[in-house]
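Task 17 of the worksheet. Students: predict the tertiary structure of the chain below and write it out as structure tokens. Keep your answer in the requested format; marks are given for formatting as well as content.
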Amino acid sequence: MLPYPQIDPVALAIGPLKIHWYGLMYLIGIGGAWLLASRRLNRFDSTWTREKLSDMVFWMSMGVIVGGRLGYVLFYDLSAYLANPTLIFEVWKGGMSFHGGFIGVMLAALWFGKKNNKSFFQLMDFVAPMVPIGLGAGRIGNFINAELWGKATDVPWAMIFPTDPAQLARHPSQLYQFALEGVALFAILWLFSRKPRPTMAVSGMFALFYGIFRFIVEFVRVPDAQLGYLAWNWLTMGQVLCVPMIVGGLLLIWLAYHRAPSAPAAAV
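Model answer:
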């Protein structure tokens, strides 16, 4: 068993002002995505300025934050937030839904694309390879918060999390998700998108592999206490929400390579 590294969730406290590691992870993810997007900006659209890229990153980041929070409220704990709506604003305590953030990003892409003469999938294909940076950073934030831990296990790398009332050795499922949704997904998408691909292909790869990776990890991750398992003592809300992503990803990839050819696609 490995010792859990005791890390104060508060990175910096100045009087009543507290800066949490969880929030800093979002800033790291957004900043890292902006830096990598700027490297590929000319291949995406040589007429775009860094200012326009910053605008796009800002609005999509808003989609992540607002959509992620509202998604958690709607998908995972609606009754608690209806009883106490002020909890919605306590984001430093965790409680963000990837699937809600994904919907938020899609809505932001639709709106921003219309304003800038870009199709929805042109923007999504460009953005997709950068998203795992934020996903990986977010999972590190979950680990520092000692939340979303896994099932009890006797594997040598199991950990006892301070937030676990039972104090059992558990899978560090946050680190599994960091490795899969962050590192592995980034490598897959970054390498795949280095060559010109038909529109929708990169988006399809993102949806497919995120859905697969998340579905797998959910087998060893403890579901949210207020929901538990939805069926058969193993099906979780996360898995249910990943099924449309896997199916949609396969469909997008098929359409990308089988629809009538249009203008040549560039590397994104």
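Marker's comment: The two ends are 42 Å apart (CA to CA). The chain is about 60% helix and 5% strand.
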